Amino acid sequence: MRGIRILQGFVLLCILLVPVVIIVFLKTMTSNTYEIPIYYESGVDNPLMECDFVENKQHAIPDFSFTSQDNETIGRADMEGKITVVDFFFTSCPSICPVMSTEMERVDDVFRDVDDVQIFSISIDPDFDTPEILQEYATLHQATKGKWFFLTGDKEVTYDLARCGFILPAMDGGDVPDDFVHSDKFVLIDEEGRIRGYYSGTNREEVDRLILETKILLYGKE
């Protein structure tokens, strides 16, 4: 009887050790990779023909030029060779923008001393959001100078850029803040101007993922 119990104990021990052996094998004999997708490698579907997309070609952010909170001209050329996190917002937004900007503060803080990462927050209400207004907003959110740019420019260009460049919804609300429509997404753009990810700017876990994937892209550049 005692021998049977010893045998049973040995079998149970072996069963319990199997997961441990598998984990050790995976950690020592395999390598883990974290794949970050490249969006729209074969072009963008354009069923409504609103945008002049090139068929069967990698989509990249088109040329644009806006004015920053410091009255500097900032645009597509400044994205070359850098990783850029982009969102669309407006300073008088009564709903999601304050949360988005607070979450973007975390992104700014993490990459404060990293020259190859920058943030573009583009206003969809350029009639109200002058560089002076954007400067106040930047100060409110403790934006790092030369890192986090709040941008304003021609309204038609802005909306075309949102829809056809970053593939995000945007709708002019006129004089009624509640009528403006824009996405809550933060968009991760690599050094070649390709879209690498969309993340909800109102969801802390999604922003954590953005920070992680930005670091992975950054490490891949080195």
Automatic annotation (TrEMBL):
Sorted alphabetically, the keyword list is: Copper, Disulfide bond, Membrane, Metal-binding, Transmembrane, Transmembrane helix
Q: Where is the Thioredoxin domain?
A: 55-216
**GO molecular function: any one?**
metal ion binding
SUPFAM superfamilies per the UniProt record, alphabetical: Thioredoxin-like
Q: Which residues cross the membrane?
A: 6-26
Q: Superkingdom of the source? A: Bacteria
InterPro entries membership: SCO1/SenC (IPR003782), Thioredoxin-like_sf (IPR036249), Thioredoxin_domain (IPR013766)
Q: Where does Cu cation bind?
A: C93, C97, H182
The answer to whether UniProt assigns keyword Disulfide bond to this entry is yes
What Pfam families would the database entry show?
A: SCO1-SenC (PF02630)
Matching entries from Gene3D superfamilies are given as: Glutaredoxin
The record lists its disulfide bonds as C93-C97
Which family does the record claim for this protein?
Belongs to the SCO1/2 family.
Name the UniProt record assigns to this protein: Uncharacterized protein SCO1/SenC/PrrC
Question: Which species is listed as the source?
Answer: Belliella baltica (strain DSM 15883 / CIP 108006 / LMG 21964 / BA134)
